[in-house]
Amino acid sequence: MTKLTNHLMIVGSTIAFMLPVSCSGPTGPSSDSGRQQLVDALDAAWVRVLDRGELRQKTVEAGMGDVMINIADCLPSPHVVPYPEKPYGVLKRILDEEKIRVGRSSGLDDPGATAYYFGAKPGDVLSLVLAELASHYGTGPLEVEQITIPPPFSNTSVLNSGDIDIVGTVNALGGETEDL
Question: Quick check: pTM over 0.90?
């Protein structure tokens, strides 16, 4: 291939990669009620918690240091994962009210369930992420309102209904919900 053909292939591939993003419809306040901003803000906070080594510290304090290992040594840098500017919708409401509604399975209350043991552990991790989020946006501490999701644990429907803002970390560890 010629040099020109190689350059055209690179440009064409770049444009093809960008099309789904730029042609996917409107973005901003009218398109997602701020849910994507919430995801992006939580990602940004999470990366900063990891970057400072706070997760490792919490796992050691919880007695899980020997069983929790990094499966990759190339975690994202904070500059790659920016916080959203000008919060709106769900993220704005959470910041204004200083409260986030977290859905949790009622199975976490059953001492016979596997999730029962791990149920308290992720609370520390969520606290770290929420403290980082509040610090960045300059709010007071974010209160966690636990909302129990009864069987059959339709987490996706409850999340999509707006009754909760996020699904608790134990519930996000796997499994199947609503045949998705």
Answer: no
